């Protein structure tokens, strides 16, 4: 249940930044800094 909730939060978080024109480079930077945030 926790994983599902966490995945939903990540999805909303990424959608929010994409809608706000969040730079893809910044997302890549975050992914490199903490790869655990990005799960399959």
Model description:
Helices cover 70% and strands 0% of the residues. It contains two helices and no strands. The longest helix is centred in the first third of the chain and has 18 residues, at 2-19. Keywords: Plasmid.
What is the fold's blueprint, element by element?
Layout: H1 2-19, H2 24-33
Keywords: Plasmid
- Separation, N- and C-terminal Cα atoms: 16 Å
The low-confidence parts are none
What are the secondary-structure elements, in order, as H or E? HH
Oligomer: single chain
Radius of gyration: 11 Å
Q: What's the helix count?
A: 2
Please summarize the sheet with the most strands: none
Helix content: over 70%
Shape: flat
Beta content: under 5%
- Mean pLDDT equals 66
Total number of strands: 0
Structural class: mainly alpha
Keywords: Plasmid
Summarize this structure briefly.
The chain has helices at 2-19, 24-33. It has 40 residues and is an all-alpha fold. Keywords: Plasmid.
Provide keyphrases for this structure.
40 residues, mainly alpha
């Amino acid at each position: 249940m926790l994983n599902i909730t966490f995945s939903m939060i990540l999805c909303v978080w990424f959608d929010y930044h994409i809608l706000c024109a969040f730079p893809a480079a910044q997302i890549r930077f975050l992914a490199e800094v903490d790869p655990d945030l990005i799960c399959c």
